[in-house]
Amino acid sequence: MKAMIYTEYGAPNVLHLKDVEKPLPQSNELLVKVYASSVTSGTIWIRKGEFPGSKVFTVLLRLMFGITKPKRPILGVEFSGIVEEVGNGVTLFKKGDEVYGTTTGLPQGSYAEYVCIPETWKQGVVAAKPQSLTFLEAAALPVGAMTALHILKKANIQAGQTILIYGASGSVGTYAVQIAKYFGAKVTGVCSTANQELARSLGADVVLDYTKGDFTNCSEQFDLIFDAVGKLNKTTWKPLLRKGGTFCSVKSPTAEKSEYLGELHAMIAQGKLKPVIDKSYAFEGIAEAHEYVELGHKKGNVVINHHH
Ligand SMILES: NC(=O)c1ccc[n+]([C@@H]2O[C@H](COP(=O)([O-])OP(=O)(O)OC[C@H]3O[C@@H](n4cnc5c(N)ncnc54)[C@H](OP(=O)(O)O)[C@@H]3O)[C@@H](O)[C@H]2O)c1
Hints:
The chain is of the alpha/beta class and about 300 residues long.
């Protein structure tokens, strides 16, 4: 099968096409023909072998993904596709099912024609694709949406609360705005001029522009502040947080759980949640997609169409 592999850390051009052996499903695994994958911001760091601005996190990343060179040559955390074959022990899925999920903790990522996914495992998730989502949309959902949901739930978001979402235009940010609205919060989004309309269209009640003047001059204090891009410093957010309020950030650990996908599916079914797709690239264009995502200004998500 065709795969996009990397055998050394570095710039997007370390990614190259190669014919590799098609994986065989174990008894607890599904063989999925991949229809779409994505380029998350985390994938960029794994390709570079470097965590921006942190030596400690870079060491941890190298311990996890390979000290001097990548241990897993096929990147790609999110996927959607169709089950082509199931192992003997699989009970939850069958051939022909439309599925999506993550490859977290698995030996192979989704930048390939096929991937083997256990029907359940500890670190990642696989589920039936919500029918209202296209394969491209489904491949953009799990990482950003589960991160936003996990962090907002940990912060104990409640109906009627006021929340400031800093970085309302990225993957985590666009999901956070929609999920916070779903929970009944009053949302103030912060993003640049070009993304004001996007944040409003996702349901933000108020949108502030971090490029124009000082958004911290807003007179309001918030029950919750969510830094969805990990770029706020304490001196900026502290005065904006109401006494007893909660600050949360994408820099905190998150978790992938099937229950989270269940909650997200309910929001999708009610028309309250939809992935924002900035651009889609062909499979051969993955390196180009990495270049774009690495600029740090994508709107929502960037996806890879394996069957364009
Ligand atoms: N904890 C976890 O497990 C976990 C999971 C997923 C993601 N993350 C982390 O969460 C962060 C966000 O991820 P993401 O995928 O959502 O990022 P992303 O989509 O790549 O973020 C891009 C967005 O950030 C905005 N942005 C860039 N600089 C900004 C600034 N100074 N102030 C406000 N907005 C700014 C950009 O808007 P403009 O063009 O308008 O600037 C753009 O829309 C990353 O650090 C990622 O690693 C953590």
